[in-house]
Write a structure and sequence with these properties.
Blueprint: E1 6-8, H1 18-22, H2 25-37, H3 51-54, H4 57-73, E2 76-80, H5 87-96, E3 111-115, H6 121-131, E4 136-142, H7 148-165, H8 167-171, E5 174-178, H9 184-192, E6 195-198, H10 212-220, H11 225-238, H12 249-262, E7 267-272, H13 278-292, E8 300-305, H14 314-319, E9 324-333, H15 358-375, E10 380-387, H16 390-411, H17 422-431, H18 438-448
Parallel strand pairs: 2-3, 2-4, 4-5, 5-6, 7-8, 7-9, 9-10
Antiparallel strand pairs: 1-10
This protein binds 5-phosphoarabinonic acid.
Length: 449
């Protein structure tokens, strides 16, 4: 039996009482039940709850076979998507990839790059330049099939791929992941005969990493999606409806962060001491930010990479306004070993470290930072991952998703919608004079003069 991820809350109990957190036991159990019975807000979007258990052999095999086509035929695969349509895949791929993946010459997997997650003209120009000399494929992901950023990037890249490969060959190198029947991407994919996967109506973008949205790019990158799903399934069982508070990590995390929020800690900083986890934090920020930031409520999710950011944000965290708490993702065992060499001259004074693992230095930085920040008035939660691999990432992703659902309900909001995201789009379309926006265009232009 593998170990599981762990949650440590003791360094938060100097700030909020353990009893107060335990006091959430009944309410979190009730809200977990509300999730499982689909009787709460946003209950049309609960398909993610059972994704790990429901994904069957045929579906996994189809994803792996599609990944193989792209792996066999592409040097580069562009994942086109924004928000929940790319962050989960990037989080897992970055966490598992060699840090210098770009520079590897003898590759076994295509390089995965991303587009449609911004509207940067230089970014798109440079991507197109890079792809001119590469055999590339595209995974175009958009649940709605109408989001401007990925639609724009896909139009550019599809045009380029067709010009480079010919229209028929290009079709075999494009995979669409979108809604079953609605949206422009579905229409286009059907018309062109692309291989497609469905994002079901009941799975929202930011809860879709364990669907083909995340699994296909992760499989193309060469990682074991069955292990990822197995880890997620383990966490699905550990946080199930029948699990008591004392055993349910998701309920505990939801409880402690809400108690901290009530005590005035308005900002949660997700901390890692492993640069490979940078995009896990980006994924987490979207998950919690878009799920909880509503009705003028919600913890602001922020993130830092330590020890790098101790030299930029460390001062603020130690001494700034006391409205923050930290949640540290701590990876217990490294995948590689590097030891500090002995040096006779010892001009750098580092011989006291000679023979030690670099990770021992990092772990002492982690411990020292935690103690300093707690002394400075920053409550600390710690999530321990035994190792950085597919299985534990699967556990972590599902843990955060489940806790997010419970936490959003504790806050009293609908964690599964994102009405606020529409405001910028309406203004952008009005400013770009999109057909149908004539009145809004007049109104916005009047505001600008
Ligand atoms: O979580 C969400 O629902 C959003 O972040 C979406 O994933 C994002 O807006 C992209 O939407 P779509 O997949 O429809 O293009």
């Amino acid at each position: 039996m593998k170990a599981d991820i762990k949650l440590h809350m003791d360094k938060a109990f100097d700030f909020v009482s353990a009893d107060a957190v335990k006091g959430y036991a009944d309410e979190t159990a009730r809200l977990n039940h509300v999730l499982h019975t689909g009787t709460g807000k946003g209950s049309d979007f609960l398909g993610w709850l059972n994704l790990p258990a429901e994904i069957d052999e045929a579906h996994l095999a189809d994803i792996e076979a599609t990944a193989k086509v792209l792996r066999d035929n592409c040097e580069v695969v562009v994942v086109v998507g924004i928000g929940g349509s790319y962050l989960g895949a990037k989080a897992v791929i970055d966490a598992l990839s060699n840090s210098f993946d770009w520079l590897q010459t003898k590759r076994q997997s295509p390089v995965i790059v991303y587009a449609g997650q911004n509207i940067g003209e230089d970014y798109l120009y440079e991507l197109q330049e890079l792809l001119k000399t590469k055999k590339f494929g595209i995974i175009s992901i958009s649940k709605s099939g109408t989001t401007t950023e990925p639609a724009l990037a896909f139009r550019l890249l599809k045009t380029q791929l067709e010009a480079q490969q010919g229209i028929e060959a290009a079709k075999k190198l494009i995979v669409g992941i979108t809604d079953k029947s609605r949206g422009a991407l579905r229409t286009l994919a059907t018309q062109e005969g692309y291989k497609t996967f469905v994002i079901t109506d009941d799975v929202g973008g930011r809860f879709s990493v364990l669907s083909p949205v995340g699994l296909l790019p992760i499989a193309v990158a060469g990682f074991n999606i069955r292990e990822l799903v197995a880890g997620a399934l383990r966490m699905q069982i550990l946080c199930a409806d029948d699990k008591p508070f004392a055993e349910n990590l998701a309920a505990q995390y939801a409880a402690v962060r809400n108690e901290l929020y009530k005590s005035g800690k308005k900002i949660e900083i997700l901390v890692n001491f492993n640069p490979k986890l940078h995009y896990v934090s980006e994924w987490w920020k979207q998950l919690y930010g878009e799920s909880e930031g509503k009705e003028h409520k919600g913890i602001f999710p922020a993130s830092v990479d330590f020890t790098t950011d101790l030299h930029s944000m460390g001062q603020w965290i130690q001494d700034g306004e006391r409205t923050i708490f930290e949640t540290v993702i701590s990876v217990q065992e490294m995948n590689h070993e590097v030891r500090v060499p002995q040096n006779q001259a010892n001009l750098d004074g580092l011989n006291f470290l000679a023979g030690k693992r670099v990770d021992e230095v990092n772990k002492m930085a982690e411990l020292g930072t935690m103690l300093a920040h707690v002394d400075g008035g920053v409550p600390n939660l710690k999530i321990e991952l035994p190792k950085l691999n597919e299985y534990y990432l699967g556990e972590l992703l599902y843990f955060f998703e489940k806790a997010c659902g419970i936490s959003g309900y504790l806050l009293g909001v609908n964690p599964f919608d994102q009405p606020g995201v529409e405001a910028y789009k309406a203004n952008m379309f009005a400013l770009l004079e999109k057909p149908g926006y004539e009145e809004a265009t007049k109104a916005i232009k009047a505001r600008l003069h």
